[in-house]
Design a protein that fits this description.
By secondary structure, the protein is an alpha/beta fold. The protein folds into two domains: about 250 residues, Rossmann fold; about 170 residues, Isoleucyl-tRNA Synthetase, Domain 1, CATH 1.10.730. The protein contains 20 helices and 16 strands. A five-stranded parallel sheet has the order 3-2-1-13-14, sandwiched between helices. Helix 10 links the parallel strand 13 and strand 14. The structure holds zinc ion (2 copies).
């Protein structure tokens, strides 16, 4: 089986906060797990850099949108790297490959008869002398009555909107009420795919229930044609004859990045023919890690576009959506500086602390809430006291009492049962990942260390080592092997910790490219382990908060890590 693993393309108008990390880390866990299962995996995403919010932000700073996204993209690549997100290709929507792909794609869709042109009246701000697409308009949602919705999608109920749907529309720049003015736009004939979409969604067993029911109810309400073009300057120039001066709507091109990023990857590696193998072969499965507000774009718009191209692209296999991550009971807010940003997080602690927290509180069925107290508890009581403690006890015992050499002894019944249990749990953890239940998977992985602590306590090797050496030998063999199992099972979640364990165990190769099968292979007697040191340190919520405040006071640059490195 071949896999295309992706996550929503981060919108880079600002440095992302921890909420963005939920999808990045989730997709990374999945991609790493599939690689270790020996599957062929391509993990792609990129910076989403067109559209009105970036145009507005650049306007405010007095720089060009391209200057803004060049800097942001560069910085974001660095953050991704530091968080250990193992993309095979992290690209951007300004990539020439993407731009050409999108233009050719829409010309094909037009040729196939699914694009039509219509003159319509659009909202126009007389004050700012411009049309007001998408987020340039605010108003009340006609479906749920939410009063501060924007003209592209309702933040509250998730419905896709067009600016003229809004009740009491206001210009988002100056607040005045817009007028209607005639303009010409190119539309994608979405309603013609209602039947196909319905059967794709109904028959698709892998799609989770929430994505299914949300999408089907949208189809029941009736789909509407979606404008492909916008009266924006910043974006991909629309390719249609007569569309000069217009750009492709950001939402209608960024979703195609999943396809173009794969194309770019293989072109760069000099084997462009492999692109078809990934995107047009029924043995490929594409999976998407997104926020729940993005579901319609991945279950309706993307599949419909892929169908409309008549290129034989495989349709999305699964859409794993999460609810929102809040901060101390409230939404993250840049304006009120409420939350933690990705770069700040790295200045406080290494990536694996955050990766652990993100997955162990992953908002799978309901919103999750970051609190410093909860963070402290999870890091100290789980990561440190369970995982860190087990590894340290075993490895330092082996180092001090056995000169770091794995002894030679046969396993007794108790210790071979213990190892069987560890392997069982490992298998369960992996199968939870395959079923997109990452939180549960991490819990299972951690329970190996929990079992390990219990085993080590019950066996009391510190007594045996003097009076019953062969029993203590057996205990150490089994416990060290459990550490090896952990170094595999934990790799998708905590890749940096897996590397540390790998070095501590003094294994060949690395934990990323070695498959899960390797965990069954016993460490040889006589094998010498490496240097042993603690994996984690305890944290204090109060101290972390104080340090964060100091960082914010002292570092004035928007790009924290550039100033400190
Ligand atoms: Zn609404
Ligand atoms: Zn205005």
């Amino acid at each position: 089986m071949r896999w295309i693993v992706t996550c929503a393309w981060p919108y880079i108008n600002a440095v992302p906060h921890l909420g963005t990390l939920v999808q990045l880390v989730s997709a990374d866990v999945y991609a790493r797990c599939m690689r270790k299962l020996g599957e062929e995996v391509l993990f792609v995403s990129g910076s989403d850099e067109h559209g009105t919010p970036i145009e507005v932000e650049a306007l405010k700073r007095g720089i060009s949108p391209k200057d803004l996204t060049d800097r942001m993209h560069r910085y974001f690549c660095k953050l991704i790297d530091l968080f250990g997100i193992s993309f095979d290709n992290y690209t951007r929507t300004e990539s020439p490959v993407h731009i050409k792909f999108v233009q050719d794609f829409y010309l094909k869709v037009q040729k196939n008869g699914y694009i039509f042109v219509e003159e319509s009246e659009q909202l126009f701000c007389p004050e700012d002398e411009m049309f007001l697409p998408d987020r340039f308009v605010e108003g009340t949602c006609p479906y749920c009555g939410y009063e501060k919705t924007t003209g592209d999608q309702c933040e509250k109920c998730g419905r896709l909107l067009t600016p003229t749907d809004l009740i009491n529309p206001r210009c988002a720049i100056c607040g005045s009420s817009p007028k209607l003015k005639k303009t010409k736009h190119w539309y994608f004939d979405l309603p013609r795919f209602e039947g196909h979409l319905r059967s794709y969604i109904e028959k698709h067993e892998a799609l989770p229930q929430n994505a299914k029911s949300m999408s089907l109810s949208m189809i029941d309400e009736g789909l509407r044609s979606r404008a492909v073009t916008r009266d924006n300057r910043w974006g991909i120039p629309a390719p249609f004859p007569g569309s000069e001066g217009k750009t492709i709507y950001v939402w209608m091109e960024a979703v195609l990045g999943y396809v173009s990023a794969v194309k770019e990857y293989f072109e760069r590696r000099g084997c462009p023919e492999k692109f078809d193998l990934f995107w047009k072969d029924p043995d490929t499965r594409s999976v998407y890690f997104i926020g729940k507000d993005n579901i319609p774009f991945h279950t309706i718009i993307l599949p419909a576009l892929l169908m409309a191209s008549q290129e034989g692209y495989v349709l999305p296999y699964n859409v794993s959506s999460t609810e929102f991550l809040n901060y101390e009971g409230d939404k993250f807010s840049k304006r009120f500086r409420r939350g933690i940003w990705m770069d700040e997080a790295l200045l406080l602690l290494e990536a694996d602390y955050w990766r652990y927290y993100i997955i162990s509180t992953r908002p799978e069925n309901k919103d999750a809430n970051f609190t410093w107290e909860d963070f402290e508890a999870k890091i100290n009581n789980e990561l440190n006291d369970v995982l860190g403690n087990f590894v340290h006890r075993v490895m330092s015992f082996l180092a001090s009492r056995y000169n770091g050499i794995v002894p030679n002894a046969d396993l007794d019944e108790e210790s071979s049962d213990f190892l069987e249990r560890c392997l069982e749990v490992a298998k369960r953890s992996i199968s939870y990942i395959e079923r997109f239940m990452l939180k549960e998977a991490l819990k299972e992985a951690m329970s190996i260390a929990r079992e390990g602590n219990r085993f080590f306590n019950e066996r009391e090797p510190w007594r045996d080592v003097k009076v019953n050496r062969s029993r203590s030998d057996t205990t150490l063999i089994a416990s060290t092997q459990a550490v090896k199992i952990i170094s595999h099972v934990i790799e998708p979640f905590l890749p940096f910790t897996a590397e540390k364990l790998w070095r501590m165990l003094n294994l060949e190769g690395d934990p990323h490219s070695t498959t899960f099968d390797d965990m069954r292979i016993m460490l040889r007697s006589g094998h010498t382990i490496g240097y042993v040191k603690p994996l984690f340190e305890k944290v204090s919520a109060e101290e972390l908060k104080t340090r964060l405040e100091r960082i914010r006071r002292e570092i004035k640059s928007e790009f924290l890590l550039e100033e400190t490195s």
